[in-house]
Structure formats: C-alpha cells, structure tokens
Amino acid sequence: MKKIRCPKCDNFVSFEEKNIEAGSIIGLTCDDCGKKFKVRFRVKPSTIAADALEKKNEEADADKYGTIVVIENVFCHRQEIPLQEGENVFGRRCPGTDINCPIQTSDMSMDRIHCTIIVKEKNGRITHYVKDNDSLVGTFVSNDILAKKETRIIEAGDIITLGATSMILKFGEEE
Prior knowledge:
Elements: E1 2-5, E2 12-15, E3 25-29, E4 36-40, H1 45-65, E5 67-70, E6 79-82, E7 86-92, E8 101-103, E9 115-122, E10 125-132, E11 139-141, E12 144-145, E13 151-154, E14 159-162, E15 165-170
Parallel strand pairs: 7-8
Antiparallel strand pairs: 1-2, 3-4, 5-6, 5-15, 7-9, 9-10, 10-13, 11-12, 11-14, 14-15
C-alpha cells in the first residue's frame, strides 16, 4: 500500500502499487475532498540507485543522532522522523510553512512551528536539547511544561508532548 498527497487538500490518498508498471498512469480520487487526479509512474535506473544511497545515508544519520517517534493517536499515524545535527524544527505540516521536521497531523492544538530539538556533538558525545517556539499550548517534557525561553536536555525515552500529540526520543541501542 502506497500513499500520495492530494494536490487540493494535502491529505493522503492510499493505493495499491502491486500491478502498476513504470510509465503507466492511474486515476485517483481523494476520499476527503473528492478531487480526481492522475499520477504517472516512471522509474529511472539512476534514480533508484540515488534513492537507495540517500536512504542508506539517512539511516546512518538516524542511528548517529537519534529518531523522534510520533505516537499514533486519533489525529495522526505513527511517524519516525530522523534527527540531524543542529536545529530540528517540529510542527504541524502545513503547505507554506518552512520547517525541517513536519508532523502530518490534524491536531490543531499543535502549532505549525511548535518546538525545536537541537542536536549537538562535542568530543564524540551527542546531546539533545528541546525548546518551545512560543507555541500556544506549550511544549511538555515528561508532563512538565517548558518555561518561556527554557532549553532542556532530553534523554532517550523522554516523552515530548506538542498539543495532543506525543513523541519519544529514540537514541542509541534503545528499542
């Protein structure tokens, strides 16, 4: 099962990709807004190799800097977002909002630019920090709200709550 975004409402449309050949065109209809659109599938050998290399590099970075696991709830599905060194800005995915870690959710209590997780590496030791970006409902770490302009160190397994959505920092050997 594959998912593609509707060009009108930006929600996911699911379809079965088993019988789709390269170069074929299929028609899809969005269940949410009723928009009908077509998708062309084409695969270039060089693209496949480049995608595989990019995915391998992303997995290596995720292993090095950690991953944020968004817990599934009534507003969103489970998501894993790899962290990068530097600032990782989290918020509700919305067209036109420029953030590097968007969360696909319908949770309106999560701001479009809600919080930032900062990953720093010093002397081979990686440290994670979280700070709120003046969000409306605040950012919680283990049910404790962050004060304005507070930056807090977070560890593997810590629960970060943005609105009604919770996520967990997965880092190192922890499963």
